Amino acid sequence: MTSLTVRNLTKSFGALKVTDDVSLAVEPGEIHAIIGPNGAGKTTLISQLSGQLGSDGGSVSLGDRDITRLSMPDRVKLGLARSFQITSVLPGFTTLENVALAVQAREGSSFRFFGTVAREEALNRAALKALAEAGLDHRADVLAKSLSHGEHRRLELAIALATEPSVLLLDEPLAGVGGEDAETFVANLQRLKGRFTMVLIEHDMDAVFQLADRVSVLVYGRIIATGTPQAIRSDPQVRAAYLGEEEEAA
Amino acid sequence: MSDATATLTAPRRALTGRLKAALVLFVLFALMPPLAAALNDPFYVLIGTRILAFAIAAMALDLILGYGAMVSFGHAAYLGFGTYAVAILASWGVNDLVLQILAAIAISAIFALVTGAISLRTKGVYFIMITLAFGQMAFFFFISLSAYGGDDGVALMQRSTVLGMDLLKSDFGLYYTTLAILVALFVLCHRIVGSRFGRVLTGIRENPTRMEAIGYSPFRYQLTAFVISGCITAVAGVMLANQAQFVSPAFMSWHRSGELIVMVVLGGVGTLAGPIAGAVAALLLEEWLGALSEHWKLFFGVFLVLMVLFSPRGITGLLEKAGIARRQE
Ligand SMILES: Nc1ncnc2c1ncn2[C@@H]1O[C@H](COP(=O)(O)OP(=O)(O)OP(=O)(O)O)[C@@H](O)[C@H]1O
Ligand SMILES: [Mg+2]
């Protein structure tokens, strides 16, 4: 059974068709990359899959469960988590607290009014573990607003990990991360491979071709090709629509 | 890896700093009546009780305004429910404070649940307006309640009894009972803010989309906090009725709701102890400026503007600048 099945998904903003009849079948454990030029509709697609944005038509299934009508929190509880292209954290909370809240959401009730949550060892320990997996445990006690850009990207990942997803939607986790930092980040993602299914949106082609099992190319809201990284790299249609531009620009 | 048990984080340090600030306030409150007696000015004990009651209400409002970013402009309605719970039950011969408080809480919980569920469908300035509208609805309901004096209100024949005891008969007894309730409710609010629930509420204030993305539906947490806040405010109303020995719709006019917001902002939002100090400052200024000039509201307005300009974080901000309280960074 596929992990995530998308059938004929559509979305328009006014006259602009941003998601145009998108179908996808993401296999268990794979990293399925979605690449495409700026404004292709990648973030919109992720928002539809995560339930943050409603769809005009089509359906989304997690495993064999139709989740098309579920809210974002309900999808998260079923194991579908996302990260944000533009970092979205709780700025006045510490790094650890940001992650601990995600642990708390999946573990037990949040209608507890008396115990001091900061002293809950189990929450803190699970949060530290997720932080370590994202390479950020050394910054646990720092307020999120004081983190650097690269650290913010790691915090995004750590929070998503802490929800213990079965399918993780990553929207450009490497956005704005360069050089050596990007390499260790890719290594971090590589270590997570196989633990859950990942849909990876990424502009960094080196990262995509290192990590992805399969790649789908999204252009003007349509998927124009899906295949192994090698097949995508040599697909003439893809080269014309997308990769060609990148190489010329480089 | 750092130690999972020893994460005394920055906001937590600020929290314990505020605990100390509250402790100082409570000690000062406890010392006030003997001081007033020594100065031969027992009238201050009654004013003091009024201040304590408003401190409870301001703290309750801070729970949703400061920690939940819900600016309720109709919170005086709950003060009103508290005062009328006393008047109505007393007219039925029920004078027990505990029963009056329970009744006030029950009616407030229902009102907050219904109006909160509707108001929370809106955000920002619309939330302010709709809570104001519900507050006015409650206000006009009691104006039309002719059995209890309508617009004019009704005087109370006696103060409430506490489990059969005349604890509130003396002004001192009323003062210290109100203080004890303030302290107990502060501890309750402080616990809530530091709990799992409080962390979720604060998280929703900081970034609701992020909270949804990790599995929380903001609505139910916000509504719960809204109800808790309304219920605590109602307790303030019960004490206020005993202090004034008089109940009228004036307790629930929109001016009162505005004053509660002023107290919270003046004291420092999201600090619990701050709004208690804010209630003291606002009511003392009202007393003194009112005695100086009939245009005291103008002076009060100027004072507020200066405060917002020079210390946007209120009295708490001033103390932090002076290095007395600890900053949250
Ligand atoms: N809420 C919205 N209302 C109107 N138009 C929108 C909205 N969100 C996105 N768009 C438009 O939809 C198109 C796709 O946007 P989207 O953010 O999904 O692209 P993307 O592939 O993620 O781009 P990038 O690579 O720059 O992140 C763009 O033309 C964008 O301007
Ligand atoms: Mg995008």
Automatic annotation (TrEMBL), chain A:
CDD domains: ABC_Mj1267_LivG_branched (cd03219). Pfam families: ABC_tran, BCA_ABC_TP_C. Coiled coil: none annotated. InterPro entries: AAA+_ATPase, ABC_AA/LPS_Transport, ABC_transporter-like_ATP-bd, BCA_ABC_TP_C, P-loop_NTPase. The keyword Cell membrane does not apply. Residues 4-245 form the ABC transporter domain. SUPFAM superfamilies: P-loop containing nucleoside triphosphate hydrolases. GO terms for molecular function: ATP binding; ATP hydrolysis activity. Transmembrane segments: none annotated. Keywords: ATP-binding, Nucleotide-binding, Transport. GO terms for cellular component: plasma membrane. This is Amino acid/amide ABC transporter ATP-binding protein 1, HAAT family. It comes from Pseudooceanicola nitratireducens.
Automatic annotation (TrEMBL), chain B:
It is a multi-pass membrane protein. Pfam families: BPD_transp_2 (PF02653). Keywords: Cell membrane, Membrane, Transmembrane, Transmembrane helix. GO terms for cellular component: plasma membrane. Coiled coil: none annotated. It is found in: Cell membrane. The chain crosses the membrane at residues 48-69, 76-94, 100-118, 125-148, 173-193, 219-240, 260-284, 296-315. Signal peptide: none annotated. GO terms for molecular function: branched-chain amino acid transmembrane transporter activity. This is Amino acid/amide ABC transporter membrane protein 2, HAAT family. It comes from Pseudooceanicola nitratireducens.
